[in-house]
Amino acid sequence: MNRKTFLRQLGYVTAGTILTPPLLKLTKQNGPFFRMNSDIGYFTGRGGTIGWFVTPDAVVVVDSQFQNSAEDFISGITDYGTGPTRILFNTHHHGDHVSGNGVFSSENYQIIAHENVPILQRRVAEAQGNIDSMVAAEITFDDSYSIDLGTEQVTARYYGSAHTGGDSVIWFENKNIAHMGDLVFNRWYPFIDLEGGASIQGWIELLETVAEEANRETRFIFGHGNVDFGVTGDTSDILYMRDFLSKLLDHTSEGLTAGQSIDEITNIDQFKEFPDHQSAGARLSLTANITAAYEELSSET
Ligand SMILES: [Zn+2]
Questions:
Q1: What separation in Å is there between the alpha carbon of 150 and the centre of ligand 1?
Q2: Which of 7, 223, 228, 243 is the S-S candidate for 182 at Cβ 3.0 to 4.6 Å?
Q3: Quick one: which of 265, 267, 289, 262 has its CA closest to 277?
């Protein structure tokens, strides 16, 4: 799926025009920066939420959105910090999280991601015919990658297939804050990228593990969130997403066991247990989610 298609699914593109979604309030100069405390925060811009952390010596950024919003971010982050050590993590390979990579790399950011991210990114770029403009992580890891910044330990951790085949969670351990990438679509029907290696069952287990590793005070940054619930939250939101995915698999599996067709299994407007979930277009809908669950469950048998 190309970037424009994904944006259209998020409801950002209409008739060829890129619209600012209602939850993202762009300012003229620096874009929308939000602080979570004195040295860490997030930037909504356009696409997957960027996370940022600054020390006198370093700037650590999570995800790069698109070229234009990455430029807005780069010009605005100087109000918060400009340390010589510059690091960008990519949580996964989707276009709304990596298309600003070139902007960061020209500002001497080192890009780090799970080893599957450049592979998946290359596959998408080849399919779209834009391999020449692809900028991918040069430092990769298979299990986890930690950086000691003195006052803060930043750790990227891979938990197996979930939203894609290459998601990692970026933990700011001393701050007790984690960036979840697209492992949480906060009260939105998520994109489940089976072609890109997703696993709903793996996703459920990942969220369970992350909730166990966190505590009641842990704060999370989410790749996407609906206008009512936003792009930050706590462990209860992680478990809510886990419960939604569990319901998705249970509903689909019950239909399969009863011998229902995919049309019958998808003939539902919403799960009554999850009334807050919103759809952002046909591919980010309950029907699309059930269809993905159907494919995953069918491929197991
Ligand atoms: Zn994604």
A1: 31
A2: 223
A3: 289
